[in-house]
Design a protein that fits this description.
Two copies of one chain form a homodimer. With about 525 residues, chain A is α/β, with parallel strands linked by helices. Chain A folds into three domains: about 100 residues, Immunoglobulin-like (Sandwich); about 280 residues, TIM Barrel (Alpha-Beta Barrel); about 100 residues, Immunoglobulin-like, CATH 2.60.40.3950. Chain A is about 20% helix and about 30% strand. Chain A is built from nine helices and 32 strands. Chain A is globular and about 85 Å long. At the A-B interface, helix 6 of A face helix 6 of B.
Chain lengths: ~525, ~525
């Protein structure tokens, strides 16, 4: 655990004023936490508390929050090594003017910092390491019994996924209707609704810190597995059961401020303003601008931020969004589609819902493993990214996509294989000639990945796009990749580039290769 | 001719002050023109001149322009019937404070007013009549010998096109390198360029009114044929030959002001900021914002306005653009693509360049007639629009797309057939279930158009999407449309809707129809 809790023994600062070796140490992009004792009153959540963290060059203001039981906290994610000091501000005297210092040290091990946009359409960690998103969907995994949550974490430990889409609020929907252990608000009581059904009555002025502490524990668990948490702030799956989709604007904003004060310092957090924003009928389209600006302005570190659609897209070009999170299965079910939407926005494109591998009767819930795997390949060769979900009824009738548990589908292993192929490439993929050739991706000169999808053929004439292609006499080797069987077979032949013929480049002897007559093959073509 | 030129015999207004029956009459959306005698000086184009046109409810300010030979003009397109008065303003005394009046009368005949956006993704004329764009490309047709321009007009008279994409500036490019009769600027002389080639030297302070008068004549000729003129303000096809792509920002803005002062009152004008804006290397991306705002602010009538791309899209969501003008052939060469781009923008989508029917060696210049025709169908069933171009070498070696002349391709006739099919529908088309079914378009309840493209089959089970579909027991008839042979065959069977089965609706007896095993068929399915 890299979280430091400072109980504010202020005399310590007095006794050891300037021995930096005595200062608490925090790795870059880890979390420093200040705990303050303050009033334990009914209106504790209304107390405004912040701190300014500063070094010789920077001053960063961060908001604090009430964590229950008379404890107030301020969290900070340092991004520069060296000494950092802070001073708190509040109208509450016991929370005001508190000062301290800590030492930010170099990140170690798997701490690469938060993920950021790189090269317009792709991502890197803050330390420059490449990050290729291979996400999965676990909407309500943190609202399950502890034993199931632990199984989910064990599953993720062995799965190929490095991003999880997950809701803050519990989800009430088919296949996930169980009551969670924790609720975000304090329950005042129960009442009979119009339909005669019992409904909980919430005190929306009182967050339940235990709910958020649990959520934070799970986000840290994901961090320890190298997984980014794509935090879904709002969602429509409530159906009047708890009413968390209908808090009203004032409570929505209060919740955003509380959530961002708690979570902005978590380096693996991404903000997803909503899942299927347009299906949340209680929130008109224009509030999303206000909510998104509130998130972005409340987050001093500018984590990745997007908004996910149902059937109508949001204005993904707005400056608050770092990338585009699209639901649309048809974008990656055939060639030539994924790139069309991407090229509009000049931002990374993640197809965050493209239907799920499973056996539900709903058409979004019964992709085959082959279809789910192909969706990933279609996305990746077009320079975009795709998110997985599994909707098989698995052991214990949990369904991974809703509750977590175990994965039983056939795509995750193949997605892991694709992830390995991509991570072995010299950089992210782009279609080499996107307006005419939707099969040939490149990762810069000397590296091509050609994907055939369902198309089968017994031979393939060596050919590449002329656009940005290699000069005559360059030599290439070819590997046949079976994306389903997960094999890579190096061919003995070497191919030598001839002068271009119109828009294509061929081998100087027009050499062909033999292919097994199977679907889902790809070719990796690398300069010798 | 509906253009009224008032030689300013002011004593006439004094002699007949208030006999409205004596007032000049102009149809709504026609053009009223004020001509003023003014200084015939070197700096005539710098004189700022405007007029305010007003009735009891509205005041509209329009800019005037110098038309050469000491004549200054102000043009106005009235949009409301009744009496309109005006008063001119200028620092030049002889152009200032001139007043007059005319009577705007009801439009007649084929005068439906300018085209406007309707129903988010579609168009109507100002009088409410539907307008479905079926455009063609005639980049340099107004820079040809008069005899050829006349042949072009004769061709258009019989062609199915109701929009023409055309450049203001002459075009210097392969297949169109001839010098035009008129130039937009006055020639000062000639000089030897660095390469030893003779170059014209222009006086960019002196427009040549004859050039613009000729352009206007041709725009009016199109109007008389019911054709909208999609006026391309800038283009990259100059290659240093005349330098009209490299005027510099000040001259560019001067040109925009002059052009909009001359043309805004033409009801069939659309503004296309550029063809392939990103290929105009002399204009950085950020000037387009300034240029677009200048056009829109200078146009009191807010004609349709777009910007057309080469290989990188512009920010088509910006508020100045009324619709999206996209170049990308791949969007309409297969199912499921055209709708993807459209749904991003909440604006009409015109695929204004999707490669051309012809026999040029370049890949954008050799679609077959079948491919060009299919591109139109793919676009139209997805609720978008497509623009034609022809790049066959035709009689006189002119190539229609560049110079005009005669059409020899096989697609125009089929495009006309599609236009007829669309105009017979009760309204514009939309995919009925766009995320899963890319073949079935609807024009509202009771009307479907199913397109099969190249797919062939000997029978088809009657089926429609459940989404928005008809209730059980509704009855439908089916027509088989051969989009290539241009035939419509009504089937004798009547199909009766059963309860939905998952996402589809079938006939209650699961009836099938026999189809000829041919490509390019469509079905028109209409409620009885």
């Amino acid at each position: 655990m890299k979280v430091f809790t400072l109980v504010m023994l202020l005399w310590a600062a007095v006794l050891f004023p300037s021995f930096s070796s005595e200062l608490p140490k925090v790795e870059t992009w880890d979390r420093f936490e200040v705990s303050l004792a303050g009033p334990k009153t009914e209106n504790a959540f209304d107390h405004i508390l912040s701190a300014e963290f500063y070094n010789d060059n920077e001053r960063i203001k961060v908001d604090g929050f009430y964590d229950g039981n008379g404890v107030y906290k301020i969290r900070f994610m340092p991004q520069k090594v060296g000494s950092w000091k802070y001073r708190t501000s509040s109208k509450v005297k016991s929370l005001n003017g508190k000062t301290g210092e800590f030492l930010c040290v170099v990140a170690t091990g798997e701490n690469h910092g938060p993920v950021q946009v790189a090269d317009t359409y792709h991502f890197k960690y803050a330390d420059g390491e490449r990050y290729y998103p291979f996400g999965t969907t676990l909407y309500a995994w943190t609202h399950q019994p502890a034993a199931l949550e632990d199984i989910t974490l064990k599953t993720l430990e062995k799965a190929p996924f490095n991003k999880v889409r997950m809701c803050v609020f519990p989800k009430y929907y088919s296949n996930v209707e169980n009551e969670p252990e924790f609720y975000p608000y304090v329950k005042k009581g129960e009442e009979k609704g119009k339909t005669g059904k019992t409904r909980f009555v919430w005190d929306f002025s009182q967050f339940d810190p235990a709910f958020f502490q649990h959520l934070e524990k799970r986000i840290d668990d994901l961090k320890d597995l190298g997984i980014e948490a794509d935090i879904i702030i709002f969602h429509p799956y409530d159906k009047g059961h708890w009413g968390f989709d209908s808090l009203g604007k004032e409570n929505d904003l209060r919740y955003i401020k509380y959530l961002t004060a708690r979570l902005s310092s978590f380096r693996n957090v991404w903000w997803s303003m909503a899942n299927e924003f347009d299906y949340i009928k209680t929130k008109p389209r224009d509030v999303w601008d206000i909510y998104t600006k509130t998130v972005v302005n409340s987050d001093p570190y500018k984590h990745l931020c997007s908004i996910h659609n149902g059937s109508v897209y949001y204005d993904n070009w707005k400056p608050e969004f770092t990338h585009v999170s699209i639901q649309n299965g048809s974008t990656v079910e055939d060639f030539g589609r994924a790139t069309l939407l991407r090229d509009v926005f000049f931002r990374p494109m993640i197809y965050d819902e493209v239907c799920y591998e499973g056996d539900l009767p709903q058409r979004w819930g019964h992709l085959s493993g082959e279809e789910m795997t192909e969706a990933f390949w279609q996305g990746v060769i077009a320079g975009t990214y795709v998110t997985h979900g599994e909707t098989y009824k698995n052991d214990g009738d949990t369904i991974f996509w809703a509750k977590g548990g175990r994965l039983i589908g056939s795509s995750p292993q193949r997605i892991g294989f694709l992830r390995k192929v991509l991570e072995e490439a010299p950089g992210p993929l782009e279609l080499a000639d996107p307006w005419k050739d939707h099969k040939t991706a490149t990762a810069g000169k000397g590296y091509y990945l050609v994907y055939f999808g369902k198309e089968m053929q017994s031979e393939w004439e060596f050919n590449l796009p002329k656009k940005g292609g290699p000069a005559a006499n360059k030599k290439f080797r070819v590997e046949i990749i079976d994306t389903w069987d997960m094999t890579v077979k190096r061919l003995p032949d070497i191919f030598e580039i001839a002068e271009p013929v119109e828009y294509r480049i061929f081998d100087k002897n027009r050499k062909k290769i033999k292919l097994p007559v199977k679907p889902y093959l790809a070719l990796r073509i690398i300069e010798e």
